[in-house]
Prior knowledge:
Layout: H1 26-44, H2 46-49, E1 55-57, H3 61-80, E2 86-87, E3 96-97, H4 105-110, H5 112-118, H6 120-146, H7 151-163, H8 165-170, H9 182-191, H10 199-236, H11 242-276, H12 306-309, H13 329-344, H14 348-367, E4 372-375, E5 378-383, H15 386-389, H16 404-423, H17 429-443, E6 453-455, H18 461-464, E7 477-480, H19 490-501, E8 514-516, E9 528-530, H20 536-547, H21 555-568, E10 570-576, H22 589-600, E11 604-606, E12 609-613
Parallel strand pairs: 7-10
Antiparallel strand pairs: 1-6, 2-3, 4-5, 8-9, 10-12, 11-12
Amino acid sequence: MSVVTPAPAASADPPAESSPPPRGRPWRAHLAVALTALALAVYVTNGLWRDPYRHGLSDNIGDQAFFEWLLGYGVYTLGHGSDPFFSDLLNVPWGVNLAANTSISVYTVLFAPLTHFAGPQISYVTILTLNLAGSAFAWYLFMRRWLVRSPLAAGLGGMFCGFAPGFISHANGHLNWTAGWVAPVVIWQVLRLRQPGRWLRNGLVLGVMLAGCFTIAAEGLFYTALASGIFIVTWALAGPVRAEAKAAAGTVLRALGVTAVVAGALLAYPLYMHFAGPQTFSGTGFNQRYFAEDVAAYLSFPSRSLAALFGLGSTLAPNRTEESSFFGVPLIFLMVVSAVLVWQRAVPARRATLRAILVVGGVFLVLSWGPRVNWMDDELPIPLPYAALAHLPLFDSALPLRLALVVVGVFGILLALITQELVDRRLSPNLQTGVTAAIVAALLPIFPLPVRHQERAPEPDFIAKGTWQRYVSENGVISALPFALNVTADGQRWQAYTMARGGPQFRIPDGYFLGPMINGEEGRKEIGRIGAPPGPTDWLFTRAALYGYVAQLSNADREQARRDFAYWNVEVLFLPEQITGSDHMTLFRDAVETTATDLLGPPEKVDDVLVWRIRPGVDPIER
């Protein structure tokens, strides 16, 4: 299914795996692309690298804390033999279904030694950097193998896929969505399923691959599978290749059967936990009509780009972490022109492949717009195909705007193909000049800026030195103030660091995760939400931290606090010298201290924190 590499007669087959390598030294090109990708990735993440222990992602500090927690939990899992897909360390007393979140289990295990010795902070920024670089390099290898001969063409296409605006946006916190290498690696193996006589081996490899990738980027794997299916069906129905598609069908189906058995066996428990385990929920905790791509966003520039430095950035995304398209008008124009030029110069069999690629891009383009058309932040009463899919399994747990990330791959392929045309000098001199200028004009405005960062509160000595153990029973419950949420995630981070070091561990109420709207069996049919259902007492401290609001407390409030503390079985609350909000938000520490003192009385000064001991069922005492 190559659109460029020479193949026999009318065949669209890719070159055989055993075909001789191209002339020259391909390893030099591979090394050059790998180093360039790594340099760009370090450039994008340099703010974190400058001080991994004190710097956090200001646009999404909560997700960074969550993934650091998962990395710490990976060390805890290996040391205690705990369930990688469910934990009772958060959201006491109910726990958290990690399979219904993004558990990144493969990463947590592979990086456990680094996490243990250097901390989750180092593992996090290392994985984030390698994700970006690895995505660009994987796409380069894929395009070089299946689509183009020129390392320049493959390298340009790969760099675009790895550092496109959507993936730079998701570099604000998401270790799952920055793992863009999943798509080319899986698609590569899918294309190999048709190899005669190797259906068993190829099916086995793909099954293991799917099981591993599921724990890293389940939603991205779903999109990859959907795109692969659309591509294969569209390609197989094309007249010029219908006969060879029919000849390969038996081998492919046998391989897919093996894949289903292997992946099904390996994923049986994770899938059970995801769909039927404790603390599951229905759909997602996010509004799919809100998290849909604005049509105008495709024509706009992202907030972290050169264009944004000149005031051309856009705010059409729900937040800075979800700018999934934002290609800009010049790139959209280039893609249309490139598709026409490549199509005109392709033989019929190659057009079958190009048509399938364009169909995939078109389908995901429209689906990314969600259930209704959105234009310039206004929802129009025009229904779209996603409205019919929104309540189907898997689709009900997806966010439509992220489907635009598949369009990134299609655009990267078109960029590689048109660059190959330039390298081969198959265009007229005027077109050569015009297309080259168009590539520069399209890519320069969206060249990425580093992700934004901010200072975050250091781990207090009370936690780092293990002083907390003198105040909490074994496996007891403790909480930093304010309680852990996505916008006040310090307490969850410090639990992560404690898990990474090994040894005794504490549990915490609340936390940042996706869970049911109502805890227990009643919540299974409800939609999800961020964090635990809020109670009166934790909201008391959250409100003080976010808004500086100090409530006038009554004995009724104290009675409610006694019930809440007994419900969590919390033994200690503590307030550090510094607390961190997201997006450079100032949290009102003094208001938190005043609220805690009014509720519980004067604190103890222990190390560098204020401590309030809690006797469940007794404290706070009525006044």
